[in-house]
Automatic annotation (TrEMBL):
InterPro entries (UniProt xref): NFX1_fam, Znf_NFX1, Znf_RING
Biased composition (Acidic residues): 84-93
Keyword tags: Metal-binding, Repeat, Zinc, Zinc-finger
Gene coding for it: NFXL1
Protein name: RING-type domain-containing protein
Compositional bias of kind Basic and acidic residues: 19-33
Organism name: Astatotilapia calliptera (Eastern happy)
Amino acid sequence: MEPAWRQQGRGRGRSQEAQVERSRPLQRERERPGTATGRGVRTKTGSTPEPPHGLAVQSKFEEIRKSNQAAAQRLVESHFSSSSDDEDDNSIDDGDHKEGKRGKILASAFTTYTDQTGGDATGLQRTGQYVSDLFQSGALTCLICIASVKRTQAVWSCSSCFSLFHLPCIQKWAKDSVFLVSSVTDEDFGQKQHPWPCPKCRAEYPPSATPNRYTCYCGKLQDPPADPWLVPHSCGSICQKELKPACGHTCLLLCHPEDEQVYTGSVEMFLKLCVSECAPCPRVSVQKCVCGREKAERPCASPRWTCQQVCLQCVSSSSLKLWRRCGSSDSSLPCTEEVQPCGDTCDRRLACLKHTCSMRCHRGSCETCRQEVEKECRCGRYRKQMPCHKEYLCDSKCPKTRNCQRHQCRRKCCPGNCPPCDQSCGRTLGCRNHKCPSVCHQGSCYPCPESVEVRCTCGSTVLVVPCGRERTTKPPRCKEACRCPPSCHHPTREAHRCHPGTCPPCKQPCLLPLPSCSHTCPQPCHDVVLVKSQQVHLAGPWEQPSEPAFVKKALPCPPCQVPLPTACFGEHEVSPVPCHRQGRFSCKRPCGRPLTCGNHSCSRECHLVNSNPCEVCEEGCSKPRPSGCPHSCPRPCHPGACPPCSQMIRQRCHCKISLLYVECTKLTAADEQTKEALSSCNNQCPKELSCGHRCKQVCHPGVCEETCQQKVKLRCPCKRIKKEVLCSLSPQFAVECDDICREQQKKVSQV
C-alpha cells in the first residue's frame, strides 16, 4: 500500500478518471476543424467560419483565468496542510498561540450546545478532550499506510469504531480484501459478493458499501473545503445526529468526529449525553405489551403495559398430551407427573443413522452403535472391518499445500478438502513491535491492533497512538510544570512547562562568591555549558571521531566586573574600573607634566612619575628669534633667553656689486640708518644719471639724486667761445656769440 503522501492527484475522493474527463473538453476543443491534423497539413472546411478576433481573445482570457484560479486553490490547500511534521512545539510562546487558536476552534464547534446550556460545557469534557487530541501531532493516523492524516486529504470514517482512513487507502484495502477472500474460497473466482472488513474493528461491509465519495463527518457536504478555523474535515454545520442512548434529541455540536478512546486494547465508546434532564415525552406511539401478543397506542413516557390475555407461561394446572420416550404410545398426563417407560423395544435411530436401538424403552439417550461394518477411510484409499460408531482414518498424510500457500496439509487421511492453516502467522507487523497473531494467511497482514501510549516527560499527559507510530510521534504538550531536578548548584530550576528532551540551560544568576573579592558572580549559571571538544585529526573518512563535537562542562566564574571609581596615573580623570583590575591605570592621554626645560610638557602616555620619570626634552630651542634673525638658537631647549646670534649674514650692498658679511646681532640690533651704513660698500655708486654721468655719491640705497655735479663745457654757436658749468645747471645757461664772432662770420661769408 502506498502512503498517502505518494498518492498525488487522488484527494477529495476523486479518481484519476475524473481528472481525465476534465481534460477531455480541452482536447476536443483543440481537435476542432481548421486545426492541424498532421505534420504541416490543414483541413479547410467552408461550412465552419473562423471565429472573430474578439471571441478568440475572450476564450484565451477565460482559459488563463481558470488556470490562475486552480493555481491559487492549490496554494491555499498546501498552505492549510496540517501535517504533524510541520508543527514545532519547542517554543512555549508559540505553543500558547497554537493552544489559543485550538481553543477558539473548539469553542466555535460547541457554540450551539453552550447556547442551550447557558455557557455550561461540563458535559463535553470527554468529547472536547478527544477532539483536542486530534490536533496533537501524530494523533490522527491512517492505520493502513501508517501516515498522518492532513486536513486537505480525503478521508473515510468507519461507522463502527469511527476510525479515520485515507480514502484511497480504504478503497485499495476493500478491493484487496475481497480479492484475497475470493481467490481462496470461490471455485468460480469473482462470482460471489464477499464483504470486506474494517482494518481496525473488523466490522464487515458489503462490496456496495466501498466508499467512493469524500464527505464531512455528518454526511451533509461532499468534498468539504479546508477551513483553518474549523475542525478538519468538518462542514461547519450542526451535527443533528440522534444522541445515544436514544432520547429523541439530536446532537447540537458542529460537524465533528465521533468520540472514542482506547484502553488496554479494547475500545470504549464515550457517547454524547443529552444536554439536561428531559421532560416526559408528550407524544403517542405504538407499543407492544409485555408478552408481545398485542399492540396499542401508548404515551412514549410509559411504554410498559400488560394486555388482558392469560400468560401461557403461568398456566400450571392444565394437562398435556405427551409421547412416551420410545415414541410407541402416548397418554394424557398432568404436566406435574413423570412419563414411565412402556417396556417395548426402543427402536430409535442411532447416531450413525443406519441402525436402530435394540434396547427396551429407556430413559436418556441411546448407546453408541457397535455393529461391525466394512468402512472406507476418509481419503478413500483403504477399507477395513470395524465398529460402526468409529471413524476409519488411515495413516497416510496429505502432501497438498494449505490455503496459506506456505505449509503442507500433513493431515492424516485427508479427503482433499484441506482445512485452513491453523499455524500462527508469526510475521512481523508493520509496527515492527509485534508479530501477526492471526492464523497463517495469504497476502498482507492486518495492521497491528495494539495501541501505544505516548507520554510526556513527567507522565501526566498521555496520547494514544497506533502501535508503531510512537517512534515518529512527538510527545504530547503538557501543561504541568517540569519536574526534572536541577543539574546546577541552584536548589530549583526556573519555572517552565514539561517538555521532551533535556531542560533548557539555567538562566538564573550564578551568585557564587568570587575568590578574589567580596562580590558574587552576576553571570547566568554556567555549571553545564556546551563546549566544543578538541577533535583529534582523523586519518581519513573511514575513521569515526571518538568524542562528540560538543561536551558539557562547568566553566569557572568570569573575573569580577563590578566597577570601582579609580584615578589614573596622571590624575587626569576618575573612571570606573572592573574589580578584577583594581588599581590605578593609564587613561591613554599624554602625561602633560612640564619638563625641566620649562618650555614643553611630557608627551608620554599617562604614567607613574615615581617608578617611571618623565622624558628628557630632546628638542631644539623653539623660542622666537629677534626680528630679522633667520637663524635658530644653536642650544638645545633651555630655560631663559637665548644668547646673541653670532652668525654672519651674507648680503649684497646697495649697488648690488659687492658681497658684504655682517654679524647677525649687529644687523638685527641696528636702527635704520645704521643698517643702511652696514649695507653700503663705501664705493662710488656705479649708477648712471639721466644726464649720462656717473653718480658721485657713495654706495647708497634708493634712487640716485639728479643734481649732477659734473662740470660740462658750453660753446657759442660758432664754437669760438666756451664756458664750464655744473651739469645740473647747464639747461639754465646759454653762451652767445660776441662781436668778434660776428665779424669772423662776415669775413667767412665774404670769402
